[in-house]
Amino acid sequence: MSKTSKPQTIKLPDVAEDKLVRAAAKSDPDALPLSAKQLKTMVPMRVLRGRPKSANKKLLVSIRYSPEVVRFFKSTGEGWQSRMDSVLRRYVARHSQGV
Fold first, then answer.
1. pLDDT (tens digit per residue) in 48-94
2. Tell me, what DSSP letter sits at residue 13?
3. Structural domain includes residue 24
4. Is 10 a member of any domain?
């Protein structure tokens, strides 16, 4: 903002103007005020954004696989990473018995 320009001032409505605005809003069927019940059920948008939290939190790691292993799992289509994880978990379950 330059030093020569004045900041904009905001003129709030007086009591009479505020009553007129509220009356107009209440008379509009598409803009009726929310009820107390509706307000209570509202949640902030930031709560709704993003992926839901998983009960099975996974770790982000960097690992190198053989090209043929990656090519095979990628060829199975969408969700190949989950299928690879499933195969590895079954391997761990099978080989960790009695350890």
1. 777 777 888 889 999 999 999 999 999 999 999 999 999 999 999 99
2. -
3. yes
4. no
Residue 82 belongs to domain spanning: 15-45+57-95
- Measured between its terminal Cα atoms, the distance across the chain in Å is 69
- The domain tally of the chain equals 1
Q: Three-state secondary structure along 31-89?
A: HCCCCHHHHHHCCCHHHHCCCCCCCCCCCCCCCCCCHHHHHHHHHCCCCHHHHHHHHHH
Q: Is 20 domain-assigned?
A: yes
88 located within any domain:
yes
Instruction: Give tens-digit pLDDT for 27-56.
Output: 888 887 788 999 889 888 777 777 777 888
pTM of the model: 0.46
Chain-centroid distance of CA 81 in Å reads: 22
H-run or E-run covering 27: helix 15-27
d(Cα 98, Cα 39) in Å, to the nearest integer? 56
